[in-house]
Design a protein that fits this description.
Layout (H helix, E strand, L loop, with lengths): L7 E3 L10 E7 L3 H17 L4 E7 L6 H11 L3 E5 L6 H11 L4 E4 L11 H8 L5 E6 L6 H19 L11 E4 H5 L11 H7 L4 E6 L14 H19 L3 H29 L8 H33 L13
Parallel strand pairs: 2-3, 2-5, 3-4, 6-8
Antiparallel strand pairs: 1-4, 5-7, 6-7
Helix pairs in contact: 1-2, 5-8, 9-10
Bound molecules: uridine-5'-diphosphate and magnesium ion (MG).
The site of uridine-5'-diphosphate has 16 residues, from β2 and α3.
């Protein structure tokens, strides 16, 4: 066992040189599911003669999942367990898994047996048709209708409207990606749900396939209704990123200018009334409106400039190009 500064990675002695598929699974208190899950993934991938590795990220479990993973990783050559220091949440857990994945293709699924690993080969062959991301669609989803299906239906519709990526089911964890695509994306907060949207911003080709879905057999769901609100906030972030990531001034600057212009026109009109016609304007609501519009305009405009600076820092500090190359033909 070896300890590193950031997290504890348990590796088996024999490594698969470069697996073609890395299966990344976030695990938070899923002790009863673990061995079934890993067995199922291994069986289906081996049956399809795929080179694979399984990367389970233990997200600070307290139910014995950690010890179970330690045990399993010791006995298997195809399993790598990444143990995080505490519970960070599903997105950081997945990000950790992506970091240790070495496959050319990365598959993700939940650790609670709600997804069927048997669907991974289907998604992979779809990916082979020339997509960068293939997302599962839980067509017959086995979750509670009122607390899960309804909010999810609304969220899916809204996400589709806002991001311009038309999928039936964003929440499905069962997805496969080309590794280059993952390398281009940074994950924050709870953004894993928006990976297709982020991928779309990065210019990815995206497909969706119906997959199987089962009711949770062991343990319990880690989420409640509060998630809906957080999803909405994340959606706003995504919307902003999609719209203004490289050109915030186009949004804020324009509104700022319009607002300033309206304020100026009203101001000129009021000045004319005062100086030209000698009317009193001190008690007119229009005066307040004119001043407000002008001030808001300046604020929006300067906010746009600031955002522009921040976006540049964002791109340059990370050496993020503002374009993505799909391929180079010589
Ligand atoms: N999960 C995690 N960290 C968390 C919450 C969840 O790694 O803080 C994992 C969890 O173990 C499961 C997956 O993320 O493998 C999805 O969680 P869950 O099944 O509770 O979500 P649901 O299917 O109810 O939407
Ligand atoms: Mg689940």
């Amino acid at each position: 066992m070896s300890y590193s500064l950031s997290s504890d990675v348990i590796e088996t002695s024999e490594k698969i040189a470069f697996p073609s598929v890395s299966v990344v699974v976030p695990i938070y208190n899923e002790v009863e599911s673990l061995s079934h899950l890993i067995e199922a993934i291994a069986t289906t991938l081996a049956k399809n003669e795929l080179d694979y590795e399984i990367i389970c990220v233990d997200d600070g479990s307290q139910d014995g999942s950690t010890e179970m993973l330690r045990q399993l990783a010791r006995d298997r050559t195809d399993l790598k367990a990444v143990i995080l220091r505490r519970n960070y949440g599903q997105t950081p857990a997945m990000a950790a898994g992506f970091q240790y994945a070495r496959g050319r293709v990365i598959a993700t699924l939940d650790g609670d047996l709600q997804n069927d690993p048997g669907d991974i080969p289907l998604l992979l062959s779809k990916l082979d048709e020339g997509y960068d991301l293939v997302s599962g669609w839980r067509k017959q989803r086995q979750d509670d209708a009122l607390t899960r299906l309804l909010p999810s239906k609304m969220a899916n519709w809204l996400i589709g409207q806002v991001t311009g990526v038309k999928l039936h089911d964003y929440g499905c964890s069962l997805k496969v990606y080309r590794a280059e695509l993952i390398a281009d994306m940074n994950l924050y907060g709870e953004l894993h749900r928006f990976l297709p949207a982020l991928a779309y911003i990065e210019g990815a080709r995206i497909a969706e396939l119906p997959v199987r879905h089962y009711a949770r057999r062991y343990g319990q769901s880690k989420y409640g209704l509060g998630r809906t609100f957080r999803v909405l906030m994340d959606l706003l972030t995504i919307y902003f990123m999609k719209k203004f990531l490289t050109k915030p001034m186009h949004g804020f600057g324009l509104f700022g200018l319009i607002s300033m212009l309206l304020g100026t026109v009203l101001g000129v009109y009021l000045t004319f009334l005062k100086l030209g016609l000698g009317q009193s304007i001190g008690n007119r609501p229009l005066l307040i409106l004119a001043v407000l519009l002008f001030l808001c305009g300046i604020q929006l405009f300067s906010f746009g400039l600031l955002a522009e600076l921040m976006m540049r820092t964002y791109h340059e500090s990370q050496k993020r190009p503002i374009y993505r190359v799909r391929e180079i033909i010589e």
